[in-house]
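INFO batch 0412 | record 1 of 1 | parsing
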Amino acid sequence: MPRIVHNGKYSLRIGNTTDTAVVAMASRVIDIYSDSGIYFAWLAVLQIGHSEGTASFIMIELNDIDNNDTVIKRYYEATSSSAGADSRFSSSGIHYYTPAWQVEHLSIHSNRTGHRFSLTVTAAGCTSTSHRGYAYIDSLGTAIP
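INFO prediction complete | emitting tokens
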């Protein structure tokens, strides 16, 4: 896994790096957005195990509050049969992880200018407390990270 800071000195970790059934969530509201794009970067670690609905997971959502719609949604669950969440993830031993920072971008078209947006990240360990799931978020803003 790369450095846990994408740009600058700090990133925000959501979730627990130990084996727990804890669900953690962080959210940020961006008021009256007038720039041409929103960028953010993320990393994730999910410990493999269990079936769908009980395994560790992360969910990242960027929502347009004024339109009441989800414009970016990433959901990854580390089930014992998933063989890797998708091509963004690699596996090592009992973990799926993103080997590089994943950069997301939303172009703001004229129909969304001035809207409020929320970025919400949820991470959870499995329901039986034996597998971890966590993510890092960094570089939320107008510039390409």
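INFO post-check: The chain has a mean pLDDT of 85.
INFO record closed
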